[in-house]
């Protein structure tokens, strides 16, 4: 699949090679039974993925550096770079969830390599060094928190605490990192990027539903996670009049219904999800005495997110009073919204327009390494459509031509930001 | 605890002996760890309970008969009974759930013995034979269905099929019945009772909440059990706009909310409970793709129960259409309501009034052996209060004086029905 580069671009993106690398990396850790591939951070399968990416970096004659938390970087040096120049950084991650698609994370890393390849094939040295990162443990399946490598890189988590993390399987992250040979010596954050641009699949349905080709990600939602426990009374389903019930299951359902109304009333800015929900004792003819559920609230605006949290707390107090139950909430995670850099956003928009690709500004609903690196450098993201919005699933899919379009935009934006093309 | 009998009663109920037998039977199968007692049908613990009850029957010189499904009967013969007279039957069951209270079932059986004792102690022979039954496997913990012994006795389930039932522990009911020595030779239903009166704790909160002493049970709710499966789409909680969601968990919550409204709109006749509810995949940031829950609908009126089922079906169709999910329902159990006998109901009311006990007509929300025997004979039930409505739990409790009051009413009603007292 060859795509004609924009006339104003001196460099050409090799779409076929990018697609081939996505497929090849997707074979590593393949699970013929469960479907897709499973390359959970710092497992043998993920080590194999890392080895493959590092080999591809070396084939492009990039300088490979690995930091203490295992983030892998391939650097394409500018002529002027004596090692002190702040590079333009791009990338993502190559660890996966269980039975993952081939695109989440990998697409951004391999598109970064495709950008470097375009420079190499044209024999052009970039005006500013380009640093392609594959961050450790973005998925957070085995070790918490997720987005760990970029969080440590941005100074949000001390590296020693990250290394001491104990996984769901009882292993220590630092030991596993050393075991697979990726405990580097570079200090995380030692090279502060000049700016950061991440290309990613949307992992949501918006672009596909609208038939839009490129998402220009201008911000990333704030996230509020909490667990709610409702304690009512277990009574006999046949003998307890409705007015005498303290039905923890009904209260949970009322909260779910309230959250939907709250989301609907927000004009689409607030999202609310109850993903986990269980009732006890879970017997057909016993009124639930206890309900435990999670609430995932998101909004790109911190004030609105706080308002949603406050309204939920208010509703919980009201319903507890009205139903004679007690309700306890436990915060699980809280991230403020991230606003991306206006200049990079404008450059992405301009680039999509140059190619004639339909595009729209949008909010990232999922967390990404970009939100961590945004703490230390101007950042933004480019999205391509995800079929059906499906991700973290073997059925994750983006059409090949859309993958190539996204990488073209990434290359074009980088050329523009580095002054290789005139606006 | 001695209670003065009604002046018009020639017989006296020995309340202290009744309470002592309830306590003694409650010791059999006691579980010091989980609390209460566990005498699940046809286990060694339940055999010990049966042996105790049979011993007490023999002490009262009752004729003990055991039928092929293991129902145990103690018969106090009238002078005129040559074996062909239809007896007045009373009783209940002595099997329990796990970690049960001491009253559920046992109270009715032992109160029946107290009635026989009153005759014996007064040296009076009843005008009609009195048959006190302890029915097999009312609770249905190990072998399904529940109320099995009375169901078989009433001809609702062939005895051979009941004997061939395989339990949750893989045992065959007939084998266990033989093992504990209670496979009798009497054909179930061979003696059709003239009428049946069952004394039971309410297992609900109504009498206690109202401060009423005696419940005159005029009917027993119809029960409709179904399992509902909602199939939606699992999508990312952060990237999927509310309008594009197919949230199986939200649909389940909407059904729970609908059922509450349906119950509220019925003026208390329809009860609706969702006792089991689980969502899949059950991940905090994933919109549930699947929800499975049970619906327990009850109403003492068959037409209203059918209307509730129809309205639920209508709502499920509407919400499936509106949310783009598929909904499947599976019937689990269905019992039509049972109306008890107007004559016996009036006699119970008259008796409570004679004693000056506060009383009310009411519906039984739980299933009882009386509903099965009502298929073959006029029947009714007497309830006494249950503290907090709690049952199937070691905390099940009824005050001693309330237990004695209930037994006094049972004795008085039987005397009235048998013509020993003038109305």
Give structural notes.
Two copies of one chain form a homodimer. The first copy, chain A, has 423 residues and is α/β, with parallel strands linked by helices. The first copy, chain A, folds into two domains: 15-220 and 337-417, 3-Layer(aba) Sandwich (Aminopeptidase); 222-335, Alpha-Beta Plaits (2-Layer Sandwich). Helices cover 35% and strands 20% of the residues of chain A. Chain A is built from twelve helices and 14 strands. Chain A has helices spanning 15-27, 44-59, 106-122, 148-153, 159-163, 173-179, 206-210, 248-265, 302-323, 342-355, 369-373, 400-417; strands spanning 63-66, 72-76, 88-93, 130-135, 195-201, 214-220, 222-231, 271-273, 277-280, 290-299, 326-335, 338-339, 359-364, 379-384. In chain A, strands 1, 2, 3, 4, 5, 6, 12, 13 and 14 form a nine-stranded mixed β-sheet that branches. In chain A, strands 7, 8, 9, 10 and 11 form a five-stranded antiparallel β-sheet that branches. In chain A, strand 1 and strand 2 form a beta hairpin. In chain A, helix 8 runs antiparallel to helix 9. Chain A is elongated and about 80 Å long. The two termini of chain A are 27 Å apart. In chain A, 55% of the residues are buried. At the A-B interface, helix 8, strand 8, strand 9 and strand 10 of A face helix 8, strand 8, strand 9 and strand 10 of B. Chains A, B: Residues 221-321 form the Peptidase M20 dimerisation domain. Chains A, B: Zn(2+) 2 binds at residues 104, 139, 392. Chains A, B: Zn(2+) 1 binds at residues 93, 104, 200. Chains A, B: InterPro entries: Amidase_Cbmase, Bact_exopeptidase_dim_dom, Peptidase_M20, Peptidase_M20_dimer. Chains A, B: Keywords: Hydrolase, Metal-binding, Plasmid, Zinc.
């Amino acid at each position: 699949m060859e795509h004609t580069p924009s006339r104003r671009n001196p460099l050409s993106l090799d779409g076929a090679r990018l697609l081939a690398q996505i497929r090849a990396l997707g074979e590593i850790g393949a699970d013929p039974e469960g479907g897709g591939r499973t390359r959970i951070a710092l497992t043998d399968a993920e080590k194999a993925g890392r080895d493959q990416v590092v080999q591809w970096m070396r084939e492009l004659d990039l300088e490979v550096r690995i930091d203490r938390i295992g983030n892998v970087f391939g650097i394409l040096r500018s002529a002027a770079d004596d090692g002190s120049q702040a590079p333009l950084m791009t990338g993502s991650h190559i660890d996966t969830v269980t039975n993952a698609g081939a695109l989440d994370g990998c697409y951004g890393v391999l598109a970064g390599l495709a950008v470097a390849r375009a420079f190499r094939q044209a024999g052009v040295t970039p005006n500013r060094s380009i640093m392609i990162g594959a961050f450790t443990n973005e998925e957070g399946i085995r070790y918490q928190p997720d987005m760990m490598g970029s969080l440590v890189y941005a100074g949000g988590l001390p590296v020693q605490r990250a290394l001491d993390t104990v996984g769901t399987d009882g292993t220590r992250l630092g030991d596993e990192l050393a075991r697979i040979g990726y405990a580097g010596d570079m200090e995380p954050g030692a090279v502060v990027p000049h700016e950061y641009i991440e290309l990613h699949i949307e992992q949501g349905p918006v672009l596909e539903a609208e038939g839009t080709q490129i998402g220009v990600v201008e911000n990333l939602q704030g996230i509020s996670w909490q667990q709610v426990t409702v304690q009512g009374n277990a009574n006999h389903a046949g003998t307890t009049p409705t007015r005498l019930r303290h039905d923890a299951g009904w209260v949970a359902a009322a909260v779910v219904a309230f959250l939907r109304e709250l989301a609907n009333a927000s004009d689409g800015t607030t999202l609310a999800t109850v993903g986990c929900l269980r009732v006890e004792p879970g017997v057909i003819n016993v009124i639930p005495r206890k309900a435990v559920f999670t609430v995932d609230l998101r909004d790109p605006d911190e004030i609105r997110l706080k308002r949603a949290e406050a309204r939920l707390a208010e509703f919980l107090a009201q319903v507890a009073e009205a139903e004679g139950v007690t309700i306890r909430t436990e915060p699980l995670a809280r991230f403020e919204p991230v606003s991306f850099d206006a200049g990079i956003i404008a450059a992405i928009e301009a680039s999509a327009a140059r190619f004639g690709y339909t595009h729209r500004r949008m909010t990232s609903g999922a967390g990404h390494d970009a939100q961590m690196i945004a703490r230390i450098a101007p950042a933004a993201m480019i999205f391509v459509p995800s079929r059906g919005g499906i991700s973290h699933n073997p059925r994750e899919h983006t059409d090949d031509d859309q993958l190539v379009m996204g990488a073209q935009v990434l290359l074009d934006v980088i050329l523009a930001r580095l002054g290789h093309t005139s606006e």
